[in-house]
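Preliminary data (for renewal application), nicotinamide-adenine-dinucleotide complex.
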Amino acid sequence: MTSLETRPLVGRRHPRPDLGSSALPSVPPQYAADFDIAIVGLGYVGLPTALAYHHAGARVLGLEISPQRISTIRSGDADLLDSDRARLTEALRDPRFAITDDPTMLRRATAVIVCVPTPVDHHLVPDLTMLRSACDSVVANAVPDQILMLTSTSYVGCTDDLLVTPLVERGFTPGRNISVAFSPERIDPGNDAYEHESVPRVVGGATPSCEMRASAVLSRYTARVHRVDSLAAAEMTKLLENTFRAVNIALANEVADICRELDVPVTEVIDAAATKPYGFMPFLPGPGVGGHCIPCDPHYLLWQLRERRVAAPMITQAMSEIAARPARVVERAAQVLSDAGRGLGGARVLVVGVSYKPDVADLRESPALEIIHGLERRGAIVEYLDPLCPQARMLDGRVTETVRDPLGFAPDLVVIHTRHRELDLSWIDERHLVLDASYRELAVPRRVTL
Ligand SMILES: NC(=O)c1ccc[n+]([C@@H]2O[C@H](COP(=O)([O-])OP(=O)(O)OC[C@H]3O[C@@H](n4cnc5c(N)ncnc54)[C@H](O)[C@@H]3O)[C@@H](O)[C@H]2O)c1
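Predicted structure:
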């Protein structure tokens, strides 16, 4: 990667020669496309995207490097919304939907969309290994006239670094014989309130014709495409969206702590404030944040700014607050047990719901893992209950299983972490002390909130 200080490309607004789509050379016959769209990475984002395109009538190729993931998808057993599960069943029966682990197949697609993970490492530094390797495959297999679109969240300038520059080195000219764009993904796994087709997409291209051709690709399945003038603006849009959420979640957590101090029910306050039709957007407090977006994305921005010696104190503070939240749950567990006359050491604690949010089985960065680790370090005997996660790898590498019989475990404390719709909590009664870190309404006798 070039130095961020010296990189001239960041923020560039279509400076490359752009001959417009009419001047594009035609696709050589040996590359006649067999697929309209190839999706690189069939995970929480890539698979629903592939299914949305297939549902819209496109011929779709999914490129996936994990054999385990491929067999999960082929068995129809992927963690999906019901609507996407039905689409998967349909797609698996259709020869117009293919899955491969062979990157050279990308040559047979008109458009290639990259949706691979962009995590951070233990030091909160962006880990670009997977994105770099996926982009290398895309560049190595690029053919004239293809439309290449990055959708993984990343730093500003990433599309230039990982696609535009290596394509130019290979002899391509974006806007002339290849199109390059960035369009941030907005899928919200587990949330069926918004159909993929109804969520607008933002897109920025390396040149105006790249942007136009990428918009046309997105318009195949989505009703609204919002164009911005550069790759950088599209990349920054995603970072703003998720940084906005991080800052507001941190604020909601702080307000929850304030409300507890002042003995005011925080959810009642948030619900009341949310009746204001403008200038307020409700965010719920919670046990921390997990998944692949909020705990990671703002760190891409902070990392990038560090090289320029630019501080972003509000974002930094929000991310620190969010990171400290699971430890706060452990502290509060100790306090609640102490108020009930016992210590955390030797106490039996049941953590309910271990995935990072309701109705998904995604354990990545889940605060529950840190909470369990923290409770165990303080001497508690911890089990978890989660029908969506029959097994879970703990932070120390152990793989444990969900309890089947919570009453049999006889917990001294129940910590509610995530409330799935299919979670049965009817077994909780006056025998159970409940620390509710989810802040969602729960009518049980001995409940305290975080
Ligand atoms: N999960 C979300 O809620 C969400 C929402 C919006 C945006 N995003 C962004 O979308 C991107 C993808 O996230 P995700 O949650 O779908 O990740 P994921 O881990 O669920 O899926 C990624 C898939 O890509 C595969 N993969 C990795 N390298 C590959 C390669 N070189 N070739 C082919 N396949 C490869 C992995 O095996 C995996 O199956 C990330 O940048 C993330 O920030 C995620």
